[in-house]
Amino acid sequence: MDVLLEASEAIQHDVFFSAAHLFNLECDLLFLDTTTTYFEIEGEDADDGLRRRGYNKDGRHGSVQVVIGWAVTRGGIPVRCWVWPGKRSDSTLVEEVKRARMKRGEIVAEVERRLAALAQTDGAPHRKAACELRAHPTFGRYVRQTKTGTLVLNREKIRDEERLDGKFLIRVSEDGLSAQDAVAGYKQLWQVERVFRDLKHVVDIRPVHHRLEDRIRAHVLLCWLAMLLIRLAENGTGQTWHQLQRQLRRLEVGIHRTRSGEVWQTNRAPQELEELFDSLDLKLPPRYLAIPAVGRPAA
To answer: What is the C-alpha separation between 145 and 154, in angstroms, rounded?
Structure first.
Protein backbone atom coordinates (compact mmCIF):
# COMPACT_ATOMS: atom_id res chain seq x y z
CA MET A 1 0.00 0.00 0.00
CA ASP A 2 2.88 2.36 0.74
CA VAL A 3 4.39 1.80 -2.71
CA LEU A 4 0.98 2.33 -4.30
CA LEU A 5 0.48 5.63 -2.50
CA GLU A 6 3.91 6.93 -3.52
CA ALA A 7 2.92 6.50 -7.15
CA SER A 8 -0.65 7.75 -6.66
CA GLU A 9 -0.40 10.87 -8.84
CA ALA A 10 1.43 9.02 -11.63
CA ILE A 11 -1.10 6.17 -11.48
CA GLN A 12 -4.09 8.49 -11.72
CA HIS A 13 -2.48 10.45 -14.57
CA ASP A 14 -1.67 7.29 -16.53
CA VAL A 15 -5.08 5.76 -15.82
CA PHE A 16 -6.78 8.90 -17.10
CA PHE A 17 -4.99 8.93 -20.45
CA SER A 18 -4.85 5.14 -20.87
CA ALA A 19 -8.56 4.67 -20.14
CA ALA A 20 -9.47 7.62 -22.36
CA HIS A 21 -7.44 6.13 -25.20
CA LEU A 22 -8.31 2.43 -24.86
CA PHE A 23 -12.01 2.86 -24.15
CA ASN A 24 -12.69 6.09 -26.07
CA LEU A 25 -13.92 7.87 -22.97
CA GLU A 26 -15.18 11.42 -23.23
CA CYS A 27 -13.03 13.07 -20.57
CA ASP A 28 -13.42 16.72 -21.52
CA LEU A 29 -16.41 16.91 -19.17
CA LEU A 30 -16.11 15.41 -15.69
CA PHE A 31 -18.57 15.45 -12.80
CA LEU A 32 -17.43 15.82 -9.22
CA ASP A 33 -19.32 14.30 -6.33
CA THR A 34 -18.36 13.70 -2.74
CA THR A 35 -19.35 11.28 -0.01
CA THR A 36 -18.17 10.34 3.47
CA THR A 37 -16.91 7.09 4.92
CA TYR A 38 -16.66 6.47 8.62
CA PHE A 39 -14.36 4.90 11.22
CA GLU A 40 -15.58 2.88 14.19
CA ILE A 41 -13.49 4.77 16.76
CA GLU A 42 -14.37 7.16 19.55
CA GLY A 43 -11.74 9.91 19.34
CA GLU A 44 -10.79 11.99 16.31
CA ASP A 45 -7.39 13.08 15.01
CA ALA A 46 -5.74 16.40 15.75
CA ASP A 47 -6.63 19.48 13.69
CA ASP A 48 -4.32 18.53 10.83
CA GLY A 49 -5.48 14.87 10.70
CA LEU A 50 -7.85 13.13 8.31
CA ARG A 51 -10.17 11.35 10.75
CA ARG A 52 -12.40 14.21 11.91
CA ARG A 53 -16.05 14.72 12.78
CA GLY A 54 -18.18 16.58 10.27
CA TYR A 55 -21.41 16.44 8.31
CA ASN A 56 -22.04 12.79 7.48
CA LYS A 57 -23.96 12.16 4.24
CA ASP A 58 -25.27 8.80 5.44
CA GLY A 59 -26.95 10.18 8.55
CA ARG A 60 -24.31 8.84 10.99
CA HIS A 61 -24.13 12.08 12.92
CA GLY A 62 -21.14 12.40 15.22
CA SER A 63 -19.11 9.72 13.43
CA VAL A 64 -15.42 10.17 12.79
CA GLN A 65 -14.98 10.22 9.01
CA VAL A 66 -13.09 11.30 5.90
CA VAL A 67 -14.51 13.02 2.82
CA ILE A 68 -13.97 11.30 -0.53
CA GLY A 69 -14.31 12.98 -3.91
CA TRP A 70 -14.42 11.31 -7.33
CA ALA A 71 -14.31 12.73 -10.85
CA VAL A 72 -16.67 10.73 -13.07
CA THR A 73 -17.15 10.77 -16.86
CA ARG A 74 -20.49 11.03 -18.64
CA GLY A 75 -20.63 7.26 -18.80
CA GLY A 76 -20.07 6.79 -15.07
CA ILE A 77 -16.34 5.88 -15.24
CA PRO A 78 -14.41 7.18 -12.19
CA VAL A 79 -11.09 8.60 -13.43
CA ARG A 80 -9.80 10.51 -10.39
CA CYS A 81 -10.14 10.40 -6.62
CA TRP A 82 -9.35 12.62 -3.62
CA VAL A 83 -9.37 12.22 0.17
CA TRP A 84 -9.95 15.14 2.56
CA PRO A 85 -10.37 15.55 6.33
CA GLY A 86 -13.84 14.65 7.57
CA LYS A 87 -14.63 18.20 8.66
CA ARG A 88 -14.29 19.69 5.14
CA SER A 89 -17.44 20.95 3.44
CA ASP A 90 -18.16 20.68 -0.29
CA SER A 91 -18.00 24.44 -0.78
CA THR A 92 -14.32 24.50 0.23
CA LEU A 93 -13.34 21.68 -2.16
CA VAL A 94 -14.40 23.07 -5.53
CA GLU A 95 -11.41 25.36 -6.08
CA GLU A 96 -8.98 22.62 -5.07
CA VAL A 97 -10.51 20.21 -7.56
CA LYS A 98 -10.52 22.86 -10.29
CA ARG A 99 -6.78 23.28 -9.87
CA ALA A 100 -6.33 19.53 -10.39
CA ARG A 101 -8.73 19.07 -13.29
CA MET A 102 -7.69 18.47 -16.87
CA LYS A 103 -8.16 21.73 -18.76
CA ARG A 104 -8.59 22.22 -22.47
CA GLY A 105 -4.95 23.29 -22.71
CA GLU A 106 -3.85 19.94 -21.32
CA ILE A 107 -6.07 18.09 -23.80
CA VAL A 108 -4.63 20.11 -26.68
CA ALA A 109 -1.11 19.39 -25.42
CA GLU A 110 -1.91 15.67 -25.43
CA VAL A 111 -3.27 15.94 -28.98
CA GLU A 112 -0.06 17.66 -30.08
CA ARG A 113 1.99 14.89 -28.47
CA ARG A 114 -0.03 12.24 -30.31
CA LEU A 115 0.32 14.08 -33.63
CA ALA A 116 4.08 14.24 -33.13
CA ALA A 117 4.18 10.50 -32.41
CA LEU A 118 1.98 9.88 -35.45
CA ALA A 119 4.51 11.67 -37.68
CA GLN A 120 7.14 9.11 -36.65
CA THR A 121 5.17 6.15 -37.99
CA ASP A 122 4.17 5.02 -41.46
CA GLY A 123 2.31 2.23 -43.20
CA ALA A 124 -0.41 0.24 -41.47
CA PRO A 125 0.55 1.37 -37.91
CA HIS A 126 0.26 5.01 -39.07
CA ARG A 127 -3.17 4.47 -40.61
CA LYS A 128 -4.44 2.63 -37.53
CA ALA A 129 -3.19 5.31 -35.12
CA ALA A 130 -4.60 8.09 -37.32
CA CYS A 131 -8.04 6.46 -37.41
CA GLU A 132 -8.02 5.98 -33.63
CA LEU A 133 -7.09 9.62 -33.05
CA ARG A 134 -9.75 10.97 -35.40
CA ALA A 135 -12.44 8.73 -33.87
CA HIS A 136 -11.54 9.55 -30.26
CA PRO A 137 -14.44 11.48 -28.62
CA THR A 138 -12.13 13.80 -26.66
CA PHE A 139 -8.91 14.14 -28.66
CA GLY A 140 -10.48 13.73 -32.11
CA ARG A 141 -12.48 16.92 -31.80
CA TYR A 142 -9.26 18.95 -31.96
CA VAL A 143 -7.75 17.44 -35.12
CA ARG A 144 -8.59 17.92 -38.80
CA GLN A 145 -7.46 16.23 -41.98
CA THR A 146 -5.82 18.25 -44.74
CA LYS A 147 -6.39 17.69 -48.46
CA THR A 148 -3.28 15.52 -48.53
CA GLY A 149 -4.64 13.32 -45.76
CA THR A 150 -2.36 14.62 -43.02
CA LEU A 151 -3.79 15.13 -39.54
CA VAL A 152 -3.09 18.51 -37.96
CA LEU A 153 -4.25 20.43 -34.93
CA ASN A 154 -7.63 22.09 -35.54
CA ARG A 155 -6.83 25.57 -34.24
CA GLU A 156 -10.05 27.00 -35.65
CA LYS A 157 -12.06 24.55 -33.52
CA ILE A 158 -10.07 25.58 -30.44
CA ARG A 159 -10.71 29.29 -31.13
CA ASP A 160 -14.43 28.63 -31.67
CA GLU A 161 -14.72 26.87 -28.32
CA GLU A 162 -12.80 29.64 -26.58
CA ARG A 163 -15.24 32.24 -27.96
CA LEU A 164 -18.15 30.25 -26.47
CA ASP A 165 -16.59 29.93 -23.03
CA GLY A 166 -18.74 31.49 -20.32
CA LYS A 167 -21.93 31.96 -22.41
CA PHE A 168 -24.74 29.82 -21.00
CA LEU A 169 -28.48 29.91 -20.39
CA ILE A 170 -28.24 28.12 -17.06
CA ARG A 171 -26.06 28.70 -14.02
CA VAL A 172 -23.11 26.36 -13.61
CA SER A 173 -19.89 26.36 -11.57
CA GLU A 174 -17.64 25.50 -14.55
CA ASP A 175 -16.92 28.46 -16.83
CA GLY A 176 -15.94 26.22 -19.74
CA LEU A 177 -19.10 24.12 -19.81
CA SER A 178 -21.51 24.33 -22.74
CA ALA A 179 -25.25 24.57 -22.22
CA GLN A 180 -25.71 21.23 -24.00
CA ASP A 181 -23.18 19.53 -21.75
CA ALA A 182 -24.73 21.07 -18.65
CA VAL A 183 -28.22 19.84 -19.54
CA ALA A 184 -26.93 16.42 -20.56
CA GLY A 185 -24.84 16.22 -17.42
CA TYR A 186 -27.80 17.03 -15.22
CA LYS A 187 -29.72 14.14 -16.78
CA GLN A 188 -26.76 11.82 -16.22
CA LEU A 189 -26.20 12.57 -12.54
CA TRP A 190 -27.65 9.15 -11.70
CA GLN A 191 -24.43 7.68 -13.16
CA VAL A 192 -22.38 9.63 -10.62
CA GLU A 193 -24.67 8.68 -7.75
CA ARG A 194 -24.48 5.02 -8.78
CA VAL A 195 -20.69 5.13 -8.46
CA PHE A 196 -20.93 6.05 -4.77
CA ARG A 197 -23.73 3.58 -4.14
CA ASP A 198 -21.63 0.75 -5.54
CA LEU A 199 -18.56 2.08 -3.77
CA LYS A 200 -20.30 1.52 -0.45
CA HIS A 201 -22.22 -1.68 -1.18
CA VAL A 202 -20.15 -3.51 -3.81
CA VAL A 203 -16.54 -2.52 -3.08
CA ASP A 204 -17.26 -2.12 0.68
CA ILE A 205 -15.12 0.96 1.22
CA ARG A 206 -16.52 1.37 4.75
CA PRO A 207 -15.93 1.18 7.59
CA VAL A 208 -12.24 2.00 7.28
CA HIS A 209 -10.02 0.05 9.66
CA HIS A 210 -6.74 1.87 8.99
CA ARG A 211 -5.23 4.36 11.41
CA LEU A 212 -2.32 5.97 9.53
CA GLU A 213 -3.16 8.75 7.07
CA ASP A 214 -1.11 7.19 4.25
CA ARG A 215 -2.90 3.86 4.67
CA ILE A 216 -6.29 5.60 4.60
CA ARG A 217 -5.40 7.33 1.32
CA ALA A 218 -4.07 4.07 -0.11
CA HIS A 219 -7.29 2.29 0.92
CA VAL A 220 -9.37 4.83 -1.01
CA LEU A 221 -7.02 4.57 -4.00
CA LEU A 222 -7.44 0.77 -4.07
CA CYS A 223 -11.22 1.12 -3.89
CA TRP A 224 -11.10 3.61 -6.75
CA LEU A 225 -9.07 1.22 -8.91
CA ALA A 226 -11.53 -1.58 -8.12
CA MET A 227 -14.48 0.64 -9.01
CA LEU A 228 -12.77 1.70 -12.23
CA LEU A 229 -12.28 -1.94 -13.31
CA ILE A 230 -15.90 -2.75 -12.43
CA ARG A 231 -17.25 0.11 -14.55
CA LEU A 232 -14.99 -0.68 -17.51
CA ALA A 233 -16.08 -4.33 -17.36
CA GLU A 234 -19.75 -3.32 -17.21
CA ASN A 235 -19.41 -0.90 -20.13
CA GLY A 236 -17.45 -3.42 -22.18
CA THR A 237 -19.99 -6.23 -21.73
CA GLY A 238 -23.28 -4.43 -21.22
CA GLN A 239 -23.86 -6.45 -18.04
CA THR A 240 -24.02 -5.48 -14.38
CA TRP A 241 -21.24 -6.46 -12.01
CA HIS A 242 -23.53 -8.94 -10.26
CA GLN A 243 -24.25 -10.65 -13.59
CA LEU A 244 -20.53 -10.75 -14.37
CA GLN A 245 -19.79 -12.28 -10.97
CA ARG A 246 -22.30 -15.06 -11.57
CA GLN A 247 -20.64 -15.91 -14.86
CA LEU A 248 -17.10 -15.70 -13.51
CA ARG A 249 -17.98 -18.10 -10.69
CA ARG A 250 -18.37 -20.80 -13.35
CA LEU A 251 -14.62 -20.67 -13.91
CA GLU A 252 -13.06 -23.06 -11.40
CA VAL A 253 -9.67 -24.57 -10.61
CA GLY A 254 -9.17 -28.18 -9.60
CA ILE A 255 -6.09 -29.24 -7.63
CA HIS A 256 -4.93 -32.81 -8.27
CA ARG A 257 -2.32 -34.17 -5.87
CA THR A 258 0.05 -36.68 -7.45
CA ARG A 259 3.24 -38.38 -6.33
CA SER A 260 5.22 -35.77 -8.27
CA GLY A 261 3.34 -32.75 -6.90
CA GLU A 262 0.16 -30.76 -7.45
CA VAL A 263 -1.48 -30.24 -10.83
CA TRP A 264 -3.69 -27.13 -11.05
CA GLN A 265 -6.25 -27.41 -13.86
CA THR A 266 -9.09 -25.11 -14.87
CA ASN A 267 -12.44 -26.42 -16.05
CA ARG A 268 -13.59 -25.98 -19.63
CA ALA A 269 -15.18 -22.56 -19.96
CA PRO A 270 -18.73 -22.52 -21.37
CA GLN A 271 -19.43 -20.60 -24.57
CA GLU A 272 -20.98 -17.67 -22.66
CA LEU A 273 -17.82 -17.23 -20.62
CA GLU A 274 -15.63 -17.30 -23.72
CA GLU A 275 -17.78 -14.58 -25.26
CA LEU A 276 -17.51 -12.56 -22.05
CA PHE A 277 -13.71 -12.63 -22.13
CA ASP A 278 -13.69 -11.83 -25.85
CA SER A 279 -15.87 -8.75 -25.29
CA LEU A 280 -13.26 -7.47 -22.82
CA ASP A 281 -10.37 -8.40 -25.12
CA LEU A 282 -9.04 -10.80 -22.48
CA LYS A 283 -7.71 -14.33 -22.73
CA LEU A 284 -9.13 -17.15 -20.65
CA PRO A 285 -6.75 -18.64 -18.06
CA PRO A 286 -4.65 -21.50 -19.47
CA ARG A 287 -5.96 -25.03 -19.03
CA TYR A 288 -3.09 -25.92 -16.69
CA LEU A 289 -1.85 -23.38 -14.14
CA ALA A 290 0.76 -25.55 -12.45
CA ILE A 291 2.38 -28.85 -13.46
CA PRO A 292 5.19 -30.48 -11.45
CA ALA A 293 8.40 -31.50 -13.17
CA VAL A 294 8.11 -35.12 -14.35
CA GLY A 295 10.30 -37.56 -12.46
CA ARG A 296 10.87 -35.30 -9.45
CA PRO A 297 9.08 -36.52 -6.33
CA ALA A 298 7.32 -33.86 -4.32
CA ALA A 299 9.33 -32.54 -1.36
So the answer is: 9
DSSP conformational letter for 90: G
Other beta carbons less than 10 A from residue 38's beta carbon: 19
**Domain extents in the chain:** 2-101+168-237, 104-164, 253-290
Can you spell out the DSSP letters for 223-277?
Answer: HHHHHHHHHHHHHHHT--HHHHHHHHTT--EEEEEETTEEEEEEPPPPHHHHHHH
The Cβ-side half-sphere exposure at 6, using a 13 Å CA radius, reads 3
d(CA 61, CA 53): 8
User: What's the pTM value of the predicted model, to 2 decimals?
Assistant: 0.60
What's the confidence (pLDDT) of residue 169?
43
- Stretch (H or E) spanning 144: strand 143-145
Half-sphere exposure of 293 (CA within 13 A, CB side): 5
Which H helix or E strand runs over 85?
strand 78-85
Mean pLDDT of 13-35: 71
147 pLDDT more than 60: yes
Higher pLDDT, 188 or 86: 86
Cα 110 to Cα 117: distance, rounded to the nearest angstrom: 11
DSSP 141: G
For residue 163, the 8-state DSSP code is H
